[in-house]
Amino acid sequence: MNFMHALTSAWNERNSLLCVGLDPDPARLPEHLKGQGDAILHFCRAIVDATADLVCCFKPQIAYFSACRAEEQLEELVAHIHSRHPGVPVILDAKRGDIGSTAEQYAIEAFERYQADAVTINPYLGRDSVAPYLEYRDKGVILLCRTSNPGGSDLQFLDVGGEKLYERLARLVSDEWNESGQCGLVVGATFPREIARVRELTGNMPLLVPGIGAQGGDIEATVRAGCNGDGNGLMINSSRAILYAGCDEDYTAAARTVARETRDAINRHRPSTSVAASP
């Protein structure tokens, strides 16, 4: 799967900018799943099946799986998405960042072991730390730029020759690193002005936008700031608000309801788009 082609198709054919984050917390799983050896896989797989037609991509966060020694369940989950819901891209949220030789191993982990279609990485070690991921030309490489956490400003707002560091990074990725058109940037929904600035600097580059739902980001402000001229260009992530919408055996129905409501709320503010009928 070519990530950028699949993402563009999902935006258009599914009429959705919603990304569902898969952050399975064992303490918050429904009671009937707790204690099962494959509870994380069962939970995430059910969420995926309940929401796949409503999303443009899924984003499993690797730390939630690794902390529970559930890496094999993550492999099975990605394989399930690819087999049951072909065309829906999977972004491995890993935020890796290391020197070139180690980055090569992280790239193998993301793209060969887990078979992810894209990966999030930390670019602050420079171009040589990003290059191993860019060698996989059909994969997406999504770099942290302006993150949604309050402490992000400690570094990302530093002045660098008359511009903020996150602005310099956005230009660097757009102008020099994105030779194969496979890059995207992470920009938090909690900072709509910065979303607009990154969009101004990068043209149509895809933006992964965490921070709506439990983190309080404003959907309307996010969409108006970040959509490109086609009404696309965003992967707006919601994790906890969808995953834990229900806490009993009907948790998948609750997750689907919130995912549909979120997708439709996003679509109401998209330019040049008609809102799809809610299934």
From TrEMBL:
It comes from Candidatus Accumulibacter adjunctus. The active site is at residue 95. Keywords: Decarboxylase, Lyase, Pyrimidine biosynthesis. GO terms for molecular function: orotidine-5'-phosphate decarboxylase activity. The gene is pyrF. This is Orotidine 5'-phosphate decarboxylase. It is an enzyme of class 4 (lyase). Pathway: Pyrimidine metabolism; UMP biosynthesis via de novo pathway; UMP from orotate: step 2/2. Its EC number is 4.1.1.23. Pfam families: OMPdecase. It catalyses: orotidine 5'-phosphate + H(+) = UMP + CO2. Belongs to the OMP decarboxylase family. Type 2 subfamily. GO terms for biological process: 'de novo' pyrimidine nucleobase biosynthetic process; 'de novo' UMP biosynthetic process. Residues 17-255 form the Orotidine 5'-phosphate decarboxylase domain.
